[in-house]
Amino acid sequence: MSNTLAIETKALTKRYGRQLAVDALSLSVPSGSVFAFLGRNGAGKTTTIQIVLDLLNRTSGEAWVLGRDCVKQALDIRRHTGYVAEGERMYDWMKVDEIIWYCRGFYPSWDDAFAAELKAKLELPGEKKIGQMSRGMQAKLALLLAMAHRPELLILDEPTAGLDVVVRRDFLEGIIEIIQEEGRTVFFSSHIVHEVERVADWVGIIDQGKMLCCLPLETLKESVRRIDLTFTDIPDNLHSTLPHVLTCTQDGKQASFIVRDYSETTLAAVHALNPATLKVETLGLEDIFVALVGNAEEA
Known about the structure:
Blueprint: E1 5-16, E2 19-30, E3 34-38, H1 45-52, E4 60-65, E5 68-69, H2 74-79, E6 81-84, H3 96-104, H4 112-121, H5 135-147, E7 153-157, H6 165-182, E8 185-190, H7 193-196, E9 202-207, E10 210-216, H8 217-223, E11 225-230, E12 245-251, E13 254-259, H9 264-271, E14 277-282, H10 285-298
Helix pairs in contact: 5-6
């Protein structure tokens, strides 16, 4: 396990009978990053998170969190990690101040001043019962409880599930602002891709338990391109002539490709087709996600 990685897995596998929920997953999350773990519902995101936090047994493979073995040093990991589960439930009958007081007893490193600062920044009403608060306010409270002991790593599993668009945006941007002030690592899973692009600096994409990519966001966006071509005479077997094609659509003498690992070699292969016109464009993260996941589904 590298000291520069907040989370690392090697060939991590979880099997339920014949079903592979996590399939030989190798993941590297750099310390200090805002890492988005993307995949459709059921892709294996929550299973992976539960394994690295020792909430679920692995079938095989290895995992480390903050340089510690996820099984042998699980208790120590939890002391240094904040975790917000998808749809996390809290005691509805408790008031905000009561649950803050209750949770502080579990963490020797709990910082009362920081908890008060978070409470003010997140505009949480201390005397209000949790059951009377909106889903958005409950999500903010769960974040406070996960952060007030100043964890080195914050893990959020679908933190904006069930929230409306405006609340989701404000919540995610609020998280990043707070964490960046602290210089810590955020690892969050999501299937809402377009919201991730504004806040993440690293991206991992998982589908059917397999890791499709794990890269800095800007590197990923540079490596995947759309190539639009028109031809006087369209070549035969057009799809098979270019390397690393994710998608190909053709309409008469026009063709459009999305390719990964774009390079000068790709461009040379395109020119060898003798197109009448050629246009190369970068893509947004959502289009890249759809191309990668759709290609994995077809494979």
